[in-house]
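Example 3.2
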Amino acid sequence: MSQVLRQHAEHQFAEELANLQKVDKRQRPANWKLSPWAVVAYLMGGKLDNGFEVTPKYIGNQRLMEIAVSTLVTDRALLLYGVPGTAKSWVSEHLAAAVSGDSTMLIQGTAGTSEEQLRYGWNYAELLAHGPSEKALVPSPLVNAMRLGKIARVEELTRIPADVQDALITVLSEKTMPIPELGSEVQATRGFSVIATANNRDKGVNELSSALKRRFNTVVLPVPSSEEEEVRIVTKRVTELGRALALPAEPPALKEIRRVVQIFRELRTGVTADGKTRIKSPTSTLSTAEAISVINSGMALAGHFGDGVLNAADIASGLIGAVVKDPVQDQLVWKEYLETVVKERPDWKALYRACREQL
């Protein structure tokens, strides 16, 4: 068993990618490992002609994945946009793995991301000893992707300062990276493209300039459209993560997952599932990713400090931590929800007591 905490997608799903390559007889763009059809098949899952079962990586509208993959065939970059927790980074990684066989050409956007991290830097010992040269140049993942004809990933693009973001404009429009210090440039090889992710809910968001927006085709990834869809996503990811982390707990009962998902959906939408009661929404995003985290945290508690069976007390602490981000405003919203909704549901008494004990 691998000791790596989290394998890259191209390694974790190597068998699936290999089987897709075997049955994939359709036209592949230059430097693509799979055809666009096979990339979508990898993302959406299903049974192949040879009987091999591909697991779904994205549970949702297949048309969105088709649009995303079609964008990468053109000269446009792809921007995956949506609220936090809608699988933008997940889809970005798997797209790069399926298209390039390499999801590691990654730039993580933060408030401290500099232009050098997007473009290139220098080995200062070499620079001082011999001056500017190709040997002294330290290429960014973006430059490496251009040279190799692969997909570069830029995570949290709107977290990057606006003036640094605009360093992408020349690359996206001209498909070249000027290196004035050497009087040269890096020209993109066929197969190169950029997948960026962004959301509009984080503090410190830097809006994209109009010039940069025009160079992206934006695909908005929505929150799951139904409770059943969200339950499927959470169940799948909890099972995968529980296996990867070797958590010593039984897989959670479907009713526990459904309960957490229902709470998140009700607080997100501001109305109970039956549509009869209006409730206040907290400041937290309560995304699908956070629901997965709540269940996994509960499984860790159950496995290491309980009897191995996920129960209400195991879920309560993670649930409160996910909902109450603002200790004043969110605390009031959560208490009101407990008293008006959770308390009134006969089969939720244990969860109500566990949550009240931890307030």
